[in-house]
C-alpha cells in the first residue's frame, strides 16, 4: 500500500529544499569563482559551474609564504587549544559530576557567572599584556581553553553514566583517576568528540584574538590573513609576504575565493568523521 503524501509534506519538502539551496549557493559560488578565470567571473559573477577554468589562484595560495605560514599557525593553535580545552574540561567536569562534592553549588554558580559576565576587551588586553603574551600563541590558545558551556555539557554526560559502574570499580580498589581514565572516558566518546568539534571550529574561525594580540605577520592565523585579503588593500598583504610580482596577473577575486575555499575545506573534512556522534 502506497503511503499518501499530503499537501503539508509537500510544503515542508519545498521549504527545506529552498533553505538548503540558500545555504549551499554561496559556498558553491565561491568554489566556482575560485576555479574560474577573471573573464569568466566578469561574464557571470553568480555562476554555479565555471566555463573558463583556471588554477592560478590556488597556485598562488600554495606558493605564497604568508598564506601557507598562517595555515601552519592556525593548525598549531587549533590542535593545541583543542587538546588543552578537552583536558581542562574533563578535569573540571568530572569532580562537578560527583553528588558528594563539597561546595558543588558554589562552583556551579561561579561557572555560570562567567557565562553571563566577562571582563571586557580592555581588561583582557591588559591581562594578556601583563602576562607577556602579546604576539605569542599563548594569547590565542589559553583564553579559549576552558568554556563554561562545554563543562556543563560534559558534567551532564558524566552524570548520565550509571553510578553502579563507578561503585563496582571502587569496590575493586580503583582510584578516581582510574575510574576516570578506564571507565568514564571510554564511555564518553560522543561528548568528547562533540566538544572537540566545538573548540576546533571556534578556534579555526576566530580571527579577532589574532587581530588584537598578534603583531608579527609571520604569526597571523589563516582567518586573519583571509580577512586582510577580503577587506584591505592587496598590495599591502603581498608586500608583507615579499611577493608583488603576481599582483597584476592574478585577479583579486580569484585570490580571495581561492583562499576562502582553502580555509574552509580542512574544517569541513572533520565533520564526516564526527557526524556519527
Q: What would you say about this model in short?
A:
This protein is 72% helix and 0% strand. The chain is mainly alpha-helical.
Map the helices and strands.
Blueprint: H1 7-34, H2 38-43, H3 56-63, H4 65-96, H5 104-116, H6 121-130, H7 138-141, H8 148-160, H9 163-171, H10 176-187, H11 189-205, H12 208-213, H13 222-231, H14 234-241, H15 252-274
Helix pairs in contact: 1-15, 3-15, 4-8, 4-11, 4-13, 8-11, 9-10, 11-15, 13-15
Describe this structure in words.
With 277 residues, the protein is an all-alpha fold. The chain has 2 domains: 1-54, no CATH class; 73-213, MetI-like (MetI-like fold), CATH 1.10.3720. The chain is built from 15 helices and no strands. It has helices at residues 7-34, 38-43, 56-63, 65-96, 104-116, 121-130, 138-141, 148-160, 163-171, 176-187, 189-205, 208-213, 222-231, 234-241, 252-274. The mean pLDDT is 85.
Amino acid at each position: 500500500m502506497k503511503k499518501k503524501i499530503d499537501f503539508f509534506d509537500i510544503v515542508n519538502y519545498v521549504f527545506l529544499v529552498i533553505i538548503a539551496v540558500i545555504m549551499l549557493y554561496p559556498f558553491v559560488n565561491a568554489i566556482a569563482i575560485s576555479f574560474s578565470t577573471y573573464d569568466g567571473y566578469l561574464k557571470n559573477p553568480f555562476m554555479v559551474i565555471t566555463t573558463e577554468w583556471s588554477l592560478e589562484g590556488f597556485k598562488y595560495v600554495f606558493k605564497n609564504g604568508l598564506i601557507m605560514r598562517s595555515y601552519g599557525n592556525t593548525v598549531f593553535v587549533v590542535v593545541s587549544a583543542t587538546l588543552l580545552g578537552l583536558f581542562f574540561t574533563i578535569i573540571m567536569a568530572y569532580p562537578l559530576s560527583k553528588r558528594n562534592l563539597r561546595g558543588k553549588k558554589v562552583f556551579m554558580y561561579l561557572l555560570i557567572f562567567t557565562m553571563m559576565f566577562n571582563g571586557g576587551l580592555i581588561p583582557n588586553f591588559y591581562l594578556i599584556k601583563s602576562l607577556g603574551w602579546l604576539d605569542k600563541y599563548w594569547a590565542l590558545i589559553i583564553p579559549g581553553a576552558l568554556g563554561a558551556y562545554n563543562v556543563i555539557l560534559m558534567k551532564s554526560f558524566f552524570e548520565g553514566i550509571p553510578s553502579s559502574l563507578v561503585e563496582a570499580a571502587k569496590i575493586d580498589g580503583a582510584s578516581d583517576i582510574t575510574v576516570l581514565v578506564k571507565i568514564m572516558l571510554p564511555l564518553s566518546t560522543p561528548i568528547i568528540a562533540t566538544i572537540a568539534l566545538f573548540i576546533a571550529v571556534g578556534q579555526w574561525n576566530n580571527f579577532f584574538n589574532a587581530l588584537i594580540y598578534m603583531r608579527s605577520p609571520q604569526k597571523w592565523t589563516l582567518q586573519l590573513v583571509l580577512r586582510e585579503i577580503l577587506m584591505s588593500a592587496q598590495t599591502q598583504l603581498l608586500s608583507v609576504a615579499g611577493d608583488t610580482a603576481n599582483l597584476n596577473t592574478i585577479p583579486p577575486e580569484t585570490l580571495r575565493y581561492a583562499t576562502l575555499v582553502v580555509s574552509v575545506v580542512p574544517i569541513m573534512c572533520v565533520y564526516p568523521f564526527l557526524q556519527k556522534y
